[in-house]
Amino acid sequence: MKKDNLKHRDINWLYFNERVLLEAKSIDTPLLERLKFLAIFSSNLDEYFKVRVSQLRQIKHLDKKFRKKLMFKANSTLQQILKTINEQQIEFGNVIKATLSELEEHNIYVRNTSNFTNEQKQFLASLFDDSIKEFCSVHKENLELTDGALYLAVTHSDHKYSIVAIPTENQDRFIALPGDGHQFCYLDDAIRLNIQKLLPNKDIDACYSIKISRDAELYLEDDYSDIELVEKIYNSLDKRLSGQATRLLYDETMPSWLIDALKTDFNLGSVDLSPGGKYHNLSDFFSFPIPEGTEHLQYQVKPALPHPELSYAENIFESISTKDQLVHFPYQDFKVVEEFLTTAATDPQVNAIKMTIYRIAKSSSLADAILTALDNNKQVTLFVEAQARFDEANNIKWGRIFEEKGAKVIFSIPQVKVHSKIAMVYRTEEDKVKRYAYIGTGNFNAKTSKIYCDHGLFTANKKITKDLGQVFQVLERKIIVPKLKRLMVSPFTTRITFLNLIQNEINAAREGRKAAITAKMNSLEDSDMIKALYRAVNAGVDVRLIVRGFCCYLTANEDPKEGMKDNIYITSIIDRYLEHGRIYLFENGGDELMYIGSADWMTRNLDRRIEVLTPILDPDIFDELKHILTLQLNDNQKARVLDLENSNEKVAQAPGQEDIRSQYAIYDYLKNKLDENR
User: Fold this and answer.
1) Half-sphere exposure at residue 516, Cβ-oriented, CA atoms within 13 angstroms
2) Which H helix or E strand runs over 205?
3) Residues 6+ apart with CB under 8 A from 40
4) At what angle do helices 494-510 and 527-539 cross, to 10 degrees?
5) Which of 46, 275, 488, 514 fits 494 for a cystine, CB–CB 3.0-4.6 Å?
């Protein structure tokens, strides 16, 4: 495939983050919820610098022959990225300013050093002396700043500077102030106001916020399928630059002499300098205090619904044995998953439990259930992914705890991540061992289940559980290649099965029969899958995609300037919950096939991760999931079009068409079904 026939994933990701910012800007988003979208935008960008920009920076230092194999120019890509980010940062600042201004209309104020009252100044002086000062550290030049931490660069009259750390680990970022209405200030400004107490012998001019971003560890195996090339890249770098400062975010009002001094002292290049506002780490808006009486400025409360069957079951295994059960988060209560494992932990008929752990919460009922199962002498086998980015330490910690309690714990597999979300319970019934399986699109994590839209299938179907047993044997390294009949499992059968299903639709279209592909995923990046979609579109297959994040699909035409064909339409949904489910639907000559699971159409998910996707075999569940998917396809309130121009325009609502906000419509649909069944 020609290089220019795909969108660059790292550049396209920025337009995903722009969609987040658009939600922060939207008047349809409740005012206090806009702060959360600002926090998400800020948090996303921090991770992007740590990982994606980090990788580009390091690759540009490679030997030219290796860069040529990667098929893109890291330096020019990096320049384009930084240009786009700087433009977005300006808009980010404007949205923050407008949001805070609108909050004042509701008597919610974020004060600063320019408008504190005398009462507030006295309050902050006492607070600083009593509980802030002891945690503030003062440093001279050439300090090794911590990645992502907040600092004030304090200028002196002699054109020198000191660095003061803002102790956000010990203090809340926002401080409630005395005064009418609801008044707050940043911790930063409490320190600015009292900065002379920290530097009593200095003639202080001003304070400027700064933050350093450092390179994260390289994760090249996530992006390049040629393992030999990955090894060559690693070996070609004379010095791994992990931890090197890559970005200085600074107050744009900072004097030029201080910018030059920081640039020199932290060994930064011009492209590493990012002007910003007066405050950084605005991901802390997640913890902005919510004043009483402001419910009208927040999302309407939508409590998780009980599952119509599993939440009321006297015996969860009997319910699953009788009929497959499908759960939808956050619309339905994650407790059904916890109950599945909690019941297994105490059920005398259960012999063994096996499951994968990709991201486990720091404390959870699931962890308690596993520990209870071990106390009850159940055989527990856990596959803990030790390379889950940014969760490595927590996953390993829990793995060691389970191991010490007697579980068989397997940490990762060389060159392959275990990304699947699967569990199996082995239960003796009538002198035979029966298997009960759970296959999901999201992690076993109660906390994230409240904000991630995911689906999970409980089944005792022998064809599925037999296949899943094969997957667990691979994970236990008892077999190398699984024998599969129903499940798609990466890196073994997922790619070829998807390609065959797409080809079937192409054949049908060429024969004049109805042909359609509908897919929902987090990201679309794999060149072979996109090439197959191009062939399908050119053959006349109706292709409808929902892609939350980056989407590298460009155009099925040889000339990208020709535009999209009429039979391909791609949208993205950003709303109060994070869309995370993967659903794949094929017309299949009228006998539709549907799969759900953990894999996106990304090279890493198809070739270098253990992923599991299950067919939906139960007709009632099939209809339920298809209805949910249809609601998302018809969203005309929060969906945006992914076009060639990266315009992020809202989906146009047809005249007379009812308002469809899919996340709310899904909740109402499941609630109505629950009411009908009770």
Assistant:
1) 13
2) strand 204-214
3) 20, 283
4) 10
5) 488
Any idea what DSSP says for residue 202?
S
Pairing between β-strand 245-251 and β-strand 421-429 as defined by DSSP bridges: unpaired
Does the pLDDT of residue 43 top 50, yes or no? Answer: yes
Q: Residue 221 above 80 pLDDT?
A: no
8: annotated binding-site residue? no
Q: What is the separation, in whole angstroms, between the first and last Cα of the chain?
A: 54
Q: Tell me, what's the pLDDT at 256?
A: 95
Q: Is 419 a catalytic residue?
A: yes
- Closest to 403 in 3D by CA, of 384, 428, 425: 384
Owner of token pair 């030219």: 64
Q: What is the mean pLDDT of residues 549-554?
A: 94
Q: Which residues contact 507 (CB under 8 A, 6 or more apart)?
A: none
Dihedral, 51, 490, 583, 8 alpha carbons, nearest 10: 40
List of domains in the chain: 9-289 (3.30.1840.10), 316-486 (3.30.870.10), 489-677 (3.30.870.10)
Residue 559: pLDDT band by 50, 70, 90 thresholds?
confident
97: which DSSP letter?
H
Is residue 452 a known part of a binding site? Answer: yes
In this prediction, residue 76 carries a pLDDT of: 78
- How many CA atoms lie within 13 Å of 436's alpha carbon, on the beta-carbon side? 27
SS3 content of the chain, % helix, strand, coil (to 5): 40, 20, 35
pLDDT tens digits, 361-390: 666 788 889 999 999 999 999 988 766 455
Q: What is the dihedral of CA 273, 279, 284, 289, to 10 degrees?
A: -170
d(CA 135, CA 133): 5
Q: Binding residue per annotation — 240?
A: no
> For 405, phi and psi rounded to 5 degrees?
-85, -5
Q: Is 640 annotated as a binding residue?
A: no
Q: What is the chain's mean pLDDT, rounded? A: 89
Buried b (16+ CB within 10 A) or exposed e, 31-54: bbbbbbbbbbbbbbbbebbbbbbb
Q: What is the DSSP letter of 562?
A: G
250 is in an annotated binding site: no
Average pLDDT of the segment spanning 331-357: 96
614 closest CA partner among 413, 444, 468, 405? 468
**Dist. CA 431–CA 598, nearest whole Å:** 34
Give 220's DSSP letter: G
Helices (H), 105-133: 118-127
Instruction: Report residue 300 CA to chain centroid gap.
Output: 23
- Does the pLDDT of residue 556 top 50, yes or no? yes
According to DSSP, residue 601 is labeled: B
Q: Which of 328, 419, 455, 627 is catalytic?
A: 419
Give the pair of three-digit tokens for residue 181.
């209405």
Distance from C-alpha of 418 to C-alpha of 77, rounded to nearest angstrom = 31
Grade residue 101 by pLDDT with cuts at 50, 70 and 90: very high
Distance in angstroms (rounded) separating the CA atoms of residues 319 and 309: 7
pLDDT at 414 over 70: no
469, pLDDT greater than 60 = yes
Residue with tokens 């006492």: 126
User: Does 582 count as an annotated binding residue?
Assistant: no
The pairs formed by 103-107 with CB atoms below 8 angstroms and a separation of 24 or more are 103/31, 103/32, 106/31, 106/294, 106/297, 107/180, 107/181, 107/182
Distance CA 528, CA 532 (A): 6
Residue 85 has pLDDT above 60, yes or no: yes
Distance CA 609, CA 615 (A): 19
Q: Over the stretch 263-285, which tens digit does the pLDDT of each residue have?
A: 998 888 887 888 888 999 999 99
pTM for this predicted structure: 0.90
The lowest-confidence range among 382-396, 452-466, 539-553, 647-661 is 382-396
